[in-house]
């Protein structure tokens, strides 16, 4: 799972480290929706606060943390 900033860096090659806010035009120019639905609980959230998996599925932080914990536990078998 990656934060939005890390995902943008890895997928688009853009560094958002010093970026305080992104306007709606930025999202439109890059083809990224501003609002997404958590793949797990289906809550809606701003994509910038989502965590994103390797298949580009978006999760709220709570579900993302749960899934990371489960994956780590399953990897210990």
Overall structural class, as computed from helix and strand content, comes to alpha+beta
**How many strands, what sense, and barrel or not for the largest sheet?**
3 strands, antiparallel
User: Are there runs of 5+ residues with pLDDT below 50, and where?
Assistant: none
Adjacency order of strands in the biggest sheet: 1-4-5
Strand content: 15-25%
Percent in helix? 40-55%
Radius of gyration: 13 Å
- Overall geometry: globular
**Tally of separate domains:** 1
Distance between the termini: 21 Å
Describe the structure.
There is one protein chain. The chain has 77 residues and is α+β, with helices and mostly antiparallel strands. The chain has one domain (2-75). Helix content is 40%, strand content 16%. It has three helices and five strands, in the order E-H-H-E-E-E-E-H. The protein has helices spanning 4-12, 24-30, 61-75, and strands at 2-3, 35-37, 44-46, 51-52, 58-59. It has a three-stranded antiparallel β-sheet. Strands 2-3 form a two-stranded antiparallel sheet. It is globular and about 40 Å long. It starts with a strand and ends with a helix. The mean pLDDT is 88.
């Amino acid at each position: 799972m990656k934060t939005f900033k890390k995902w943008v860096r890895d997928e688009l090659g853009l560094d958002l480290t010093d970026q305080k806010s992104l306007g709606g035009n930025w999202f439109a120019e890059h083809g990224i929706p501003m609002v997404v639905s958590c793949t797990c609980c289906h809550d809606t959230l701003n994509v910038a606060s989502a965590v994103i998996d390797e298949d580009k599925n978006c999760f709220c932080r709570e579900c993302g943390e749960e899934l990371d914990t489960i994956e780590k536990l399953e990897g210990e078998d």
